[in-house]
Amino acid sequence: MDSQEVNILTLPEDVIIPIFQFLPQFEVLHNIRLTCKAWNHYSRHGILWRRIRAQDFIRATFRIENFMRFLCDISHLVEEIVFDVEQIKHLQKNQFFFSRLRSLKIDKAHGRLDSDKLSEYSLKAITRLYPALKVLHLKYFCFDFDMTCCPSDLKELVVAGWILGERSKYKHPRNVGEHFMNLTHLGLLRCQLINQTVLALLSGLPCLESIDLSSTKYDHYLKDDEKIPDKHCSRRIQKVVLNNMDCEFFPHVFVYILVSARESIRYIDISNSNQGNLTSPCLHNIAEMCEQLDTLVIGNHDFYNEYLDKACFRLLGPDVNRLNRGIRDVASKNQHLSTIKMNFVEANIDDETVLHVFQNCTKLQWIEILGCESLSDNTLGSISNGERLHVIKISKCKYVTPAGIGKALQRCSRLRTLHVEDIGTIKHILDRKNFRIINYLTTLSLANCYELSDECLDQIAICCPILRSINLTCCHGITDVGFVQFVQQCASITEIILNDNQEYKIGLTDHAFSEVANFRNNLERLTLGRFSKITNEAIHELICKCPKLTKILFCNTDRLWEFDVVITASKLDMTKAEILEFTQTLRRELEKLHIEQEDVCLSGFVSAIRLHRDCLSRRNKDKLFTDWDEASLPMD
């Protein structure tokens, strides 16, 4: 053992540093330096600290004050730093000079609401210390905000929650645009604006290459001028994201961008955008103007409640036939199209339209179809140039059968990702004719395939030797025996999703997870549903015995909740008292996540246990420590 340790300690720098790069930053800083003084100077190597995320360091054993002192020592190395808005005051107080900092990202504080605020003066004072800053993300709610307080030579600016008041002190939006003459990416997320503001802003950004207006709402309280400016916006725009936009916004903004940058646009996302207005641009306009289009995303896949389902025919105009004609036009005239995502809640797309896409898009590599009730098996069997397809996702298509999916697979020899949700049994997909084809699958989603059995899982393990991720949401037919055999046979699996609902509960017990924990596996992420039968003891066993597990997710919880666990390599040397103490602590924390079974309303929160493994600190006396008290747990 001593000779092995000496050999490790005498490894050259070009070997040690890449090893450190694979470890979490906190472990490199906090544990490696305690392990061996010979590695002390390696722990501050510049390449390890180019990107810093403050949330990864701030815990019970390493508070914000300690982090700021360390940040002062490495300030000349940092190129990107991510802070919560509530932590930025420490950065402002210390006034560190980051000579190489290119990216500053300020996120909304965990668990806080609209009280998060950073003054314009403070932001200007902070950014003045970063001469090389090119990327600035302000993802807290910037209600009262003058964007000209940001550095003028930014390349990328993302602002969330910007609202322009009627009696605003701000400069004219065109002047705001002219302030950022070198800006190439602009993101205005969840903002509340008017056409005049957005159009004027775009007209003043000559170098813009990407625009993201996701979830931007129309402010009905302000007087608006919908006239499109005579001056074109940037002709360099390649990516346009206008999802979840109001119909009052969409026609004017999209037409302006389309007319100005028609020759350069490669990516368009207009999903969930209400285009009920008759003046809305049709898809055939995209087909006529965007000859270089590579990716098109359309649909209303985020609208799952009953009221919005009824409105889905209005999303792309009241005339459904016009929608189908528009998709055909895009497929016929855009020869470079490699990705098309058509995700609808109801049957807006007819079978002939999908067939037309398959036959005309010869360079197609990625296709998603959701909610096409008329899609048939014959159409799936008519895929041309299937050897180019890498990703197929088909969900909620009423008349598609496993036999049809099998026909599609026979034409797709290089498929890497297959999503076939809500399709029943998959025995035809696992037909012997498809064995050679699905050998290359790395991702397989079988969510809501209620007839999935242990036999099917066994076939998947045999047919997919390099499978890394599988989604078994609501596959309630699998048992402990079948699940354990699958994990043991499919050694390459790194992610398993076992979400469920009240009607289709996955019945895996502690026995299955105990067997998985004791078997040498490569599992990295495990997702559990609300009605999972797993106990705290089984979670503890997974944490301690799965060598590569980094995250356990709990879906549909009633609160947003997460905490960290740090485990050393010597965890097997823990005493019984230490194990008992940890198990009891874990049980207390998981009880805070407990949901009453009588509560039938599903919440959309996803909670997480994040695992950090310290592989090198064998001499560290702290065998296992947690930061329960500083985990920002939700209040009861």
pLDDT < 50 runs, ≥5 residues: 1-6, 110-116, 275-280, 303-318, 595-602, 615-636
Number of DSSP helical runs: 20
The whole-angstrom Rg is 27 Å
The main β sheet shows up as:
22 strands, mixed
Indicate the percent of residues in helices.
25-40%
As a percent range, the share of strand residues is: 15-25%
Shape: globular
N/C terminus separation = 50 Å
pLDDT average, as an integer?
Answer: 75
Q: Give the helix/strand class.
A: alpha/beta
Q: What's the total count of β strands?
A: 24
Describe this structure in words.
By secondary structure, the chain is an alpha/beta fold. The chain is built from 20 helices and 24 strands. It has a 22-stranded mixed sheet, covered by helices on one side.
What's the structural blueprint in terms of helices and strands?
Layout: H1 2-9, H2 13-21, H3 25-35, E1 51-53, H4 64-73, E2 80-84, H5 88-94, E3 103-107, H6 120-127, E4 135-141, E5 156-160, H7 173-179, E6 185-189, E7 192-193, H8 195-203, E8 210-212, E9 217-218, E10 239-241, H9 250-260, E11 267-269, H10 283-289, E12 295-299, H11 306-310, H12 320-333, E13 339-343, H13 351-360, E14 366-370, H14 377-380, E15 391-395, H15 402-410, E16 417-421, E17 443-445, H16 454-463, E18 469-471, H17 480-489, E19 495-498, H18 510-518, E20 525-528, H19 536-545, E21 551-557, E22 562-568, H20 576-591, E23 605-614, E24 624-626
Parallel strand pairs: 1-2, 2-3, 3-4, 4-5, 5-6, 6-8, 7-9, 8-10, 10-11, 11-12, 12-13, 13-14, 14-15, 15-16, 16-17, 17-18, 18-19, 19-20, 20-21, 22-23
Antiparallel strand pairs: 21-23, 22-24
Helix pairs in contact: 7-8, 10-12, 12-13, 16-17, 17-18, 18-19
